[in-house]
Amino acid sequence: MYFIALATDYDGTLAHDGIVARKTLSALKRFKKSGRKLVLVTGRELPDLKRVFSEVSLFDKVVAENGALIYTPASEQERVIAPSPEPKFVARLKKQGVKPLSVGQSIIATWEPHQATVLEVIKKMGLELEIIFNKGAVMILPSGINKATGLAAALQDLRLSPHNVIGVGDAENDHAFLQACGCSVAVDNAIPAVKDTANLVMRGARGKGVEQLIDKMIKHDHAIVSRRHDGIVLGSAGGDEIYLSPTDTVLIAGSSGIGKSTLATALTERFVESKFQFCVFDPEGDYDGLEGAVRLGDGSSAPTKAQVLDLIAKADSNIVVNGLALRVNERPDFFADLLPGLGSFRRRTARPHWLIIDEAHHLLPKRRDDTRAVLSLELPGTILITVHPEAISTDALRLVTAIIALGPKAKDVVKVFCHETGIEAPKAIPTPKGARVLFWRPQAGKKVKTVKVIEPRQSLKRHSRKYAEGQLDEAGSFYFHGPDNAMNLRAHNLMIFAQIAEGIDDKTWEFHLHAGDYSKWFRHQIRDKDLARETAEAEEDKTLSAEESRKRVLDAVRRRYTAPATAPE
């Protein structure tokens, strides 16, 4: 369920001549039973609305007075979010013969052709007021107050994002709130300007159109989401933009160090721009310093389930869940414990809109028996990032709707995915060149495309304490074994590397030094070219004694990685 709420105008949309038909009321009740929320957005004053609409309690929130007043039917609480009308202004309008004239808690309303008189009085009195039209009605409100601002306040109370709301209306004053919704809909009787800007136009007029929309939302929720009006641009192919939808499950895969986290970083920037909430599961501390996000956990303290769920409840909070303090074998259990609670929250609010799961083969490994239960039935708005797609749970891979393959082994990613899921591999897989990647929608039956992806503005600096204090896997660790394989000492981070290096004999130290093993490890596993370059100079300098070369290499390591936690990184 992606669209959690329906925000509807009253007159001319839900109601005809002020009355809501029985079939429309039944549709509203059916909508509520589906677990969704209803928000009424109207220009009417609240007493007038209650007089004509006795079923107002069906709604979770009412935005009245064209955005100035928020009403909660369950508690009957009223909250005015705009200043009250200026008595002198009202008196002047009456003196100028403006009638009928209705005065609410913030709104003042009359009818055409009095707009000219109203505007003249506003100018003479120097007031910050705006005139809003609604099919002949003339509404005067404080500057900046409209149905969109009122809806935003109501959604904040409900802890919902506008992305997950469908708005439906018919008139001039509906433009603002319709454009603020994730999907805008016009009923058939709507004015042409509203129809032209709406994402969908219903065949039915007024309540009949709302009934059709409700049926569509309940039966085909995800099908309403358009990649073009609520998607994120991945890049371009052949002059066409390629979009990712918040209902997609995306696999980003390729060999190590090829740019997967760089692409993910670029996508998070688009999420921030579009006000999509996101949560990054970062087992190895690669996303520290990510703009627009709060980090939970570090190299010495693991995040907790409660911390994640508490912070994600705030709609404007993006999170990086740093699992660096968790051992590799602890990560799947942590994730398995967290995901059901997060999934329950997403079903209620559709937030966070995007989950980014880095090192997905660690968090959703094939070997776990409970992955199907953990996943539930779907992973919408999820990006799985991995070097080893074959090691990810097959159940998770079968949910993938889009594949992004990077690097020289991009073709292999597509083939491995097809082998693991039992999907027939595409007949022609192009070779991506330069900065391009492969993009394929396996369930759409379309060709594999080469896409020029977006570039991030920020350059993430890999977290130094990940390598200093974290735990690299077996393949990423350094092994001191000496010239005769007499030992097998594993260094799973740089701190352990330094400790072992200080304790081994000169013969073992120099064996790895002269083989260039230290610089190779720093370059390919630690991925620090500067450290590798400085170490290679020590490896190639034959005049250095074992003690001197050891000191130079370890000084270089400590200078970069094992400084106090308060030191700049």
UniProtKB/TrEMBL annotation:
Family matches, as InterPro entries: AAA+_ATPase, HAD-like_sf, HAD-SF_hydro_IIB, HAD_sf, HerA_central, P-loop_NTPase
Listed SUPFAM superfamilies: HAD-like, P-loop containing nucleoside triphosphate hydrolases
Domain AAA+ ATPase as annotated: residue spans: 246-410
Domain of life: Bacteria
A GO term for molecular function: magnesium ion binding
Record's GO cellular component terms: cytosol
Pfam family, one: DUF87
PANTHER family, A to Z: HAD SUPERFAMILY HYDROLASE-LIKE, TYPE 3, PHOSPHOSERINE PHOSPHATASE
Protein name listed in UniProt: AAA+ ATPase domain-containing protein
